[in-house]
Amino acid sequence: MGITTALCNSFKHELLKGLHDFDTDTFKIALFKASPTDNYGEDTTNYSVGGYDNDGGTSYSVNTTMTGNNNDEHANGNGYTTEGATLLSAAVTLSSTTAHIDFADPQWTSATLDSLGCLIYNYSTKGSVAGRAVCVISFTTVQSADNGVFTITMPTDGASTSIIRVA
Questions:
Q1: Total structural domains in the chain?
Q2: DSSP 3-state assignment of 57?
Q3: 32 lies in a domain?
Q4: Going by DSSP bridges, is the β-strand pair 52-53/27-32 parallel, antiparallel, or unpaired?
Q5: What Å distances lie between residue 103 and 4, 146, 150, 160, 163, CA to CA?
Q6: Rounded-to-integer distance, Cα 140 and Cα 138, Å
Q7: pTM above 0.90?
Q8: Could you give the CA distance from residue 64 to residue 45 in angstroms, rounded to a whole number?
């Protein structure tokens, strides 16, 4: 199946419901395995929790989660820990009419892994649910590390370049 880069539709809804706070919540980035079984993109809703009401009448099923039916997260071990890495140094900025966020580049050291993409999600519990999806990122091709450092280089911070932008 595949991974499509997208801001998750559930995130857009939850942002307006006040369920994400980039100043106080903990955000993580988890890696998909090289050959995911399911499709991921704008309809991805959560890291692991399925079948919940999105505090506004929209219910989500388990097959819209990273670790749901087929568990497409990269396996634990070899330098990777399930649930991913904590995103550090979150900086929210408003440039003209676009709000955007920048994070420090996450790294996994002594890693031996292959990944086709990643999921940024809110690790904090909000409205009794943790793991709310923010965005899915496709690497386009499988990226690998062989007992080395696996780094995701975040794009340059800016209104037209940041990984998360709201215009």
A1: 1
A2: coil
A3: yes
A4: unpaired
A5: 21, 25, 16, 15, 9
A6: 5
A7: yes
A8: 6
